[in-house]
Amino acid sequence: QQPVQSPQAVILREGEDAVINCSSSKALYSVHWYRQKHGEAPVFLMILLKGGEQKGHDKISASFNEKKQQSSLYLTASQLSYSGTYFCGTVLISGSARQLTFGSGTQLTVLP
Amino acid sequence: NAGVTQTPKFRVLKTGQSMTLLCAQDMNHEYMYWYRQDPGMGLRLIHYSVGEGTTAKGEVPDGYNVSRLKKQNFLLGLESAAPSQTSVYFCASSYRAGGPGETQYFGPGTRLLVL
């Protein structure tokens, strides 16, 4: 069951904030966030585990609302280096082997 | 420490030809995965392995076979390539499933074009 990401694309100016959402129709064990730059491999950003935690990494943070089966990625004071496609990956509680299912991605473009 | 490496980086095949993609990791990870990435589709799991000698089907396994004879290697085979298998293939590995160990480390990808 592929998670749904929104928006599909966002364009912002350097220094602006952005929020990327990821939602699932099934109960989640964990949510993973990855960033992929054009022509490169996805790079891990953070994991959020069941328990409704919130994490941060520099000016990128995320939350996980397990009751709503939703996660949001917050990018504050965006930098040019934040440009890329952001993927959320979800692991279902009912999953047999902790398979990660990725959303279709959100393309983020930061302009100077 | 090379992490996850993939061979080859790029390949062109004719319909019906076969080939094997090689993935190697030097992090002593138990779990390994093969994904394909198509425009607008995100990453889709083809096959995965939870340890040496084991393999399992993912979301889109048809037309592919895999083998994990050694812990550090995970091979993806295409027996009879089709144009629909034109894609970018990523291999990934993780220490284990569950908890922080779930972090997946990706290889640089293999671009495959089937004519």
Residue runs with pLDDT of under 50 for 5 or more positions of chain A: none
Percentage beta strand of chain A? over 45%
The tally of beta strands of chain A, per DSSP, is: 11
What is the number of strand segments of chain B? 11
- Overall, the morphology of chain A is globular
- The amount of beta strand of chain B, in percent, is over 45%
Helix fraction bin of chain A: under 10%
Major β-sheet of chain A, in short?
6 strands, mixed
Mean of residue pLDDT of chain A?
A: 89
Radius of gyration of chain B, CA atoms, in whole angstroms: 13 Å
Radius of gyration of chain A, in Å, reads: 13 Å
Cα distance spanning the termini of chain A: 37 Å
Termini separation of chain B: 36 Å
Uncertain ranges of chain B: none
Order of helices and strands of chain B: EEEEEEEEEEE
Number of helices of chain A: 0
Oligomer: heterodimer
The class by helix and strand makeup of chain A works out as mainly beta
Number of DSSP helical runs of chain B: 0
Largest interface, by Cβ-Cβ below 8 angstroms: which chains and how many residues each? A-B, 22 and 26 residues
If you had to describe this structure to a student in words, what would you say it looks like?
The complex is a heterodimer of chains A (112) and B (115). Helices cover 0% and strands 56% of the residues of chain A. Chain A is mostly beta strands and 112 residues long. In chain A, the strands form 2 sheets. In chain A, strands 2, 4, 5, 9, 10 and 11 form a 6-stranded mixed sheet that branches. Chain A is globular. The N and C termini of chain A lie far apart (37 Å). The mean pLDDT of chain A is 89. Chain B is an all-beta fold and 115 residues long. Helix content of chain B is 0%, strand content 50%. Chain B has strands at residues 4-7, 10-13, 19-25, 31-38, 42-49, 56-57, 65-67, 73-78, 87-94, 105-106, 110-114. In chain B, strands 2, 4, 5, 6, 9, 10 and 11 form a 7-stranded mixed sheet that branches. A 4-stranded antiparallel sheet of chain B has the order 1-3-8-7, with no helix packed on it. Chain B is globular, with a radius of gyration of 13 Å. The A-B interface holds A 2, 30, 32, 40-44, 47, 49, 87, 89, 91, 97-105 and B 33, 35, 40-45, 48, 50, 56, 58-59, 90, 97-100, 102-109.
